[in-house]
Design the sequence.
């Protein structure tokens, strides 16, 4: 009976995690849709165009303002929106929305290259779902913060809590990267960090 | 400076600027619309990353003077240009 209970709990946790973390194919598809000129990088211009599309998609009554019923979502988002609403009028105007979106671009641009590659975009999506503590309050990722955030990503993905990621649990990683990361042992939190660090720095 | 020359310069500049804005807005943005439809609030507003961004400066919270209410910001203009180029 206890065994069945554990299995049900593990499956429930797995379902939550799968919802929270996008898979590698989804990430690549999203990235390629934003990368309009197909050069393998998202520029600030492309990010802005994408942000306009996001704004327009949510602006259901087409009045160029995001009102509470158009932006109501999860608690985190409501908190972010309240802070992005600089004039505190209870709605989000395009200027406020774009300030938020550009701030997000700057955070996601980990290597300060002024564009996002697939790895940076992937980390943005994964960490947005898991967590980040900007310990030095500079509004940017440094590698110690990235390591801490990847521990949270790992925690979300490791649904059976065996301290290593199976290929299924690591669905956000392409098979080639999974093979690389597990060449010398199981994919634990440190190996996950080293994988992304390698992609960002080449080391 | 010759007024005719000045006028020509202004017209050329205006056309050049309009052209620039239009050309950037005319990128094939159909894929963006598709991407936007499938985007979650976490991705749109940044989720746990957005939570760590510093709160907006309160100096911007001052009421907008009446004389400025019809002024568009650069973002307003860019958005309007984007909408014109992406009429659906």
Sequence:
């Amino acid at each position: 009976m206890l065994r069945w209970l554990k299995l049900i709990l593990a499956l429930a946790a797995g379902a939550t995690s799968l919802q929270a973390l996008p898979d590698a194919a989804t990430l690549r598809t999203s990235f390629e849709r934003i990368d309009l000129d197909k050069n393998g990088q998202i520029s600030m211009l492309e990010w802005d165009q994408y942000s306009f599309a996001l704004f327009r998609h949510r602006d259901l009554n087409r009045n160029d303002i995001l009102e509470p019923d158009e932006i109501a979502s999860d608690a985190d988002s409501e908190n972010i929106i309240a802070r992005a609403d600089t004039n505190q009028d209870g709605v989000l105007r395009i200027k406020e929305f774009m300030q938020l979106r550009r701030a997000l671009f700057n955070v996601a641009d980990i290597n300060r290259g002024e564009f996002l590659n697939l790895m940076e975009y992937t980390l943005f999506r994964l960490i947005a779902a898991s967590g980040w503590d900007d310990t030095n309050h500079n509004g940017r990722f440094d590698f110690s913060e990235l390591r801490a955030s990847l521990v949270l990503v790992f925690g979300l993905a490791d649904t059976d809590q065996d301290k290593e990621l199976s290929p299924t649990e690591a669905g956000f990683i392409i098979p080639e990267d999974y093979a690389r990361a597990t060449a010398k042992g199981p994919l634990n939190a440190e190996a996950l960090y080293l994988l992304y660090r390698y992609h960002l720095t080449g080391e | 400076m010759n007024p005719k020359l000045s006028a020509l310069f202004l017209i050329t500049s205006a056309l050049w600027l309009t052209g620039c804005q239009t050309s950037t807005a005319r990128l094939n943005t159909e894929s963006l619309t598709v991407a936007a439809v499938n985007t979650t609030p976490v991705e749109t507003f940044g989720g746990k990353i957005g939570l760590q961004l510093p709160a907006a400066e309160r100096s911007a919270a001052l009421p907008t003077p009446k004389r400025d209410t019809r002024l568009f910001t650069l973002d307003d203009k860019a958005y309007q240009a984007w909408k014109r180029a992406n009429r659906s």
The CA atoms of residues 5 and 11 of chain B lie 10 Å apart. The radius of gyration of chain B is 19 Å. Residues 19-26, 57-62 of chain B have pLDDT under 50 and may be disordered. Residues 3-25 of chain B form the longest helix (23 residues).
